[in-house]
Amino acid sequence: MSEQQQPQFGIEKIYLKDLSLEIPNAPQVFLERETPQIEISVHNGAGAIDQAGLYEAVLTVTVTAKLKDKTVFLVEVGQAGIFRILHLPPQELDAVLGVLCPNTLLPYAREAVASVMARAGFPPVLLQHMNFDAAYQERMRQLQQEQAAKAGTPS
């Protein structure tokens, strides 16, 4: 058995793990004519479910709209997936969990945000494409800098 097994990637399940909508100043906020400031934040995380190569990845998108000092709405979507990932070295596994999994989940999160916005009575907020590869590379660069700084610091 000297042959190395081929890497495998499979989607086992895509699901909406969390959905939250707040409109704290309704119904008055619907009478406003000014355009609110929209802020979008995205966070992704992943972890092993079991020893058989199953991992859960969660892409959390938070959309906040404010008008002056009032919150118009706040939407948070936790789009998740269970992925089977086998026969990858740790660094490649980390890249798959940090890049491929969130790229897979983004269209589902985009649809969930747009749908809840329409049901709430607001124009849809359409999430733009996100470069998870660039974010992953930046995170790796920061980790390397932190490790280098710790290695250079005498104990």
Attribute tags:
Bacterial Protein-export protein SecB; globular; four-stranded antiparallel β-sheet
Summarize the entry for a quick read.
With 155 residues, this protein is of the alpha+beta class.
Q: In terms of topology, how is this protein built?
A:
Layout: E1 8-22, E2 37-48, E3 54-67, E4 70-86, H1 90-120, H2 132-152
Antiparallel strand pairs: 1-4, 2-3, 3-4
Largest sheet: 4 strands, antiparallel
Helix coverage percent of residues? 25-40%
Strand % is 35-45%
Named CATH architecture: Roll
Mean pLDDT: 92
Class computed from helices, strands and strand pairing? alpha+beta
Tally the beta strands: 4
Low-confidence stretches: none
One letter per element, helices H and strands E, the order comes to EEEEHH
Distance between the termini: 45 Å
Q: For the record, what CATH class applies? A: Alpha Beta
Number of discrete helical segments: 2
User: Total domains, how many?
Assistant: 1
Form type: globular
CATH topology, which one?
Bacterial Protein-export protein SecB
Spell out the CATH superfamily.
SecB-like
Strands in their spatial order, largest beta sheet: 1-4-3-2
- Cα-atom radius of gyration: 20 Å
Structure description:
This protein is 34% helix and 37% strand. The chain is an alpha+beta fold. A hairpin with a 5-residue loop joins strand 2 (37-48) and strand 3. The protein contains two helices and four strands; from the N terminus they run ββββαα. It has helices at 90-120, 132-152, and strands at residues 8-22, 37-48, 54-67, 70-86. It has one domain: Bacterial Protein-export protein SecB (Roll). The longest helix has 31 residues, at 90-120.
